[in-house]
Design a protein that fits this description.
It holds the Pfam family BPD_transp_2. This protein has 296 residues and is mainly alpha-helical. The chain is built from 11 helices and 4 strands.
């Protein structure tokens, strides 16, 4: 029983990490129709920004409020990069899908190369609080605190995004834009500001994933964002493009499948099962778990 509880909670921790990356992807595609393959760059900037701040920023450090300050710096850096990417590279290319893909793929590769050139290709030990290295007993299972931290963070981010979308003016604009962008534009609402805001939210969530992912894995490396981005895209497709709730459901399914299958099967089999699940969803329900059927 303890093993099942441990696998379930560590799977939820992995799901939380996927959701933090996928939530921004889902919002950006739902509103702006942009498949942002450079989203992993925001994660990498957040991870390395936190890592750098913990050792160099006055007041920041690996413990207590210093770690919170380091994470805040990393999130701010990732958010700033996301805003710059939208303003400089993506905004001139709206409605030009092929060019968007080429630019974001190129930026993703260039971002990894830049991180490697700056801090090297080898993984670096991530400065994490001592309590995240410890475990907590839950129903007979010794669960790593790093995974529990990710779960709490993902729940808070999900709640914050849903509250923002439901109860703020820009949230209503974003929801309306996801449903019918042409009508929102026809009403005289400047959706370009909403595009920038969505990129900022997505960049902040991805940067937070990078910072807390460093706590979860214990290291940070230039290619970490790209590897997580693959599963984040799978989560977005399974959950339904443009649906934050769908991404949350799909992240839970993907995280649990990976953990249980990799443990009871062979290593790597869980990843194959996730890809198989993606294929099944595309065949039987191509709009995803919470997506809407496209109408002519």
């Amino acid at each position: 029983m303890g093993t099942v509880i441990l696998l379930a909670l560590t799977g939820l921790g992995l799901a939380a990490l996927y959701f933090l990356v996928a939530s921004g992807l889902s919002l950006v595609f739902g509103l702006a129709d942009v498949l942002n393959f450079a989203h992993g760059l925001f994660l990498g900037v957040g991870a390395y920004g936190t890592w750098w701040a913990a050792g160099n920023l006055p007041g920041a450090g690996p413990d207590g409020f210093g770690f919170v300050l380091a994470v805040a710096f990393g999130v701010a850096a990732g958010t700033l990069v996301a805003i710059l990417v939208e303003l400089v590279l993506i905004r001139p290319l709206y409605s030009r899908t092929i060019e968007q893909v080429l630019v974001t793929v190129g930026l993703s590769l260039a971002g990894v190369a830049l991180l490697q050139a700056t801090w090297g290709a080898d993984a670096r030990t991530f400065p994490r609080p001592d309590w995240t290295r410890q475990v907590t007993g839950i129903l007979g299972a010794q669960v790593p605190n790093g995974g529990l931290l990710l779960i709490v963070a993902a729940v808070l981010v999900l709640g914050a995004i849903l509250a923002f979308l439901r109860w703020t003016r820009y949230g209503l604009v974003i929801r309306a834009g996801v449903e019918n962008r042409e009508m929102v534009t026809a009403l005289g609402i400047d959706v370009r500001k909403a595009f920038t805001l969505v990129f900022a939210i997505g960049g902040a969530a991805a940067a937070l994933a990078g910072a807390l992912g460093g706590v979860y894995f214990g290291t940070v490396s230039p290619g970490q964002g790209g590897s997580l981005l693959i599963f984040a895209f799978i989560v977005v497709v399974i959950g339904g493009m443009g649906s934050v709730i769908g991404s949350a459901y799909a992240a839970v399914v993907v995280g649990l499948v990976q953990q249980f299958v990799n443990y009871y099967g062979t290593s790597g089999l869980g990843d194959i099962c996730v890809v198989g699940l993606l294929a099944v969803v595309l065949l039987l329900r191509p709009q995803g778990i919470a997506g809407k059927v496209a109408t002519a």
